[in-house]
Amino acid sequence: MHGRLKVKSTAQKEAERKNEEQEKLVKYKAARNRVVELRSNHDDELLKITTQLLIFNCECNTFWNIRKEYVSSKAAAFRENDGNESDNIVGDNIELDKFFAQELAFTVQCLRKNPKAYAVWLYREYIMTLNPKSDWSHELVLCDEFLKLDERNFHCWDYRRVVLKHIPERKKELELQFTTSKIEDNFSNFSSWHYRTKLLCGEQRYIDCCWLSEKTVRSEIELVFNALFTDPSDQSAWFYYRWMHGNNSCSKCSIVSTLVLRKFSSISILFSHYLSRQQLDPVKITLCSSPVRYTLKPVHAYPETTGSLSNLWVFSIVSSSIPPFGTIDISIQFPEDLTGVNSLKLTVSENDKLCFNVNSEVIQNEHRSELQTAFPEVYEYNKAMLLDLAKEEPDNKFVLLQLSSFYRGSLGGNDQESKNECLKVLDKLMSVDALRKRYYEDIRSDVTIECEILKRSSKGTSDSAVGDSEKKEDLSLRVQGLRLTQIRRLSPLLMLSYLDLSDNELESIGALKGFMNLKVLRLDRNMIRDLSPLSMCYSLTTFSADTNLVDSLKSLESLSECHSLITIDLSNNKVCSVEQFSQQMVLLFPRLESLNGSNVLEQF
Question: Which of 25, 70, 218, 427 is deepest in the core (most CB within 10 A)?
Answer without folding.
Answer: 70
